[in-house]
TrEMBL record:
It comes from Rhodosorus marinus. Its main location: cytoplasm. This is Calmodulin-lysine N-methyltransferase. CDD domains: AdoMet_MTases. PANTHER family: CALMODULIN-LYSINE N-METHYLTRANSFERASE. Its EC number is 2.1.1.60. InterPro entries: CaM-Lys-N-MeTrfase, Methyltransf_16, SAM-dependent_MTases_sf. Pfam families: Methyltransf_16 (PF10294).
């Protein structure tokens, strides 16, 4: 919904958990007045199956996706496929995950990204790391 409010013409909401996609769909339906003029699509997708993902996105917004160390390479590889050249990644992840550095190393090792930045934000008991990147 934030992407729609920021002016996105179309939004793909995805998860590999059918329940998460169902809840996201219900949220969109209940808040459809906010999303007027935005095409919102919902799909069950798994980042380990890149051939099922659409391509040429301007921006990918991801949150809390690096919860398993084994996902780092799959997600890094997928991002370089689904974003178009000059596309932006915005990723938020809890601070407690040490394998985030492995994900960043995986992005860097591709040699496809012209900008990668990690920012740590701490407020009260919340510690979040934001990763922003631009595909070259």
């Amino acid at each position: 919904m934030a992407a729609s409010l920021a002016g996105a013409e179309s939004v793909l909401m995805s998860d590999n958990d059918p329940l998460a996609v169902e809840v996201a769909t219900m949220n969109v339906e209940r808040n459809s007045y906010i999303l007027q003029g935005t095409n919102v699509e919902h799909r069950i997708l798994d980042w380990s199956v890149p051939e099922l993902w659409p391509r040429d996105y301007d921006i990918v917004i991801a949150a809390d996706v690096l919860y398993e160390p084994s996902f780092a390479d799959d997600i890094a590889s997928l991002l370089s496929l689904v974003l178009k050249k000059g596309g932006h990644l915005l990723l938020a992840d809890p601070f407690i995950r040490p394998h985030r550095e492995y994900f960043l190393d995986s992005l860097r090792s591709q040699g496809k990204w012209k900008y990668i930045r990690k920012t740590h934000v701490s407020r009260e008991s919340q510690n979040i790391v934001f990763v922003t990147a631009v595909l070259g």
